Amino acid sequence: MFHKEKYIIHKDSRIKDFCRVVFWYLLAFVNPRYFTKKIDKLVERYSDDNGIYEAAVGVDKTGMKEVFETGTYEELIELPFEDMMVPAPKNYDKILTQFYGDYMQKPSDAEIEYKSHLLDAYRIK
To answer: Can you spell out the DSSP letters for 3-45?
Structure first.
């Protein structure tokens, strides 16, 4: 296993943390693609071409901030990021405001720690 135990301890509830640890180790041997396929099947089953809402699955801890009116992500524009141009939703301000509130203000250290995944990234050469 490549993940450290501290990444599944959120300290929001001892019971939740206990359950996270137990399930983390029970599911450590299950291929993540299994869950991806399950989520894809659920999305397919409950998708509606005439729906009025769309969502980004598994993005937010609260479960509601990722729900938007249909078409929110549809139109893309190019925005500068460091030394390149990247595609972004035209409604990026609405999306970022819904997720973060005033996203132009730096959050407190406590909020950064709470929302951070604290994941180490590695590049294989």
So the answer is: S-GGGG---S-HHHHHHHHHHHHHTTTS-HHHHHHHHHHHHHH
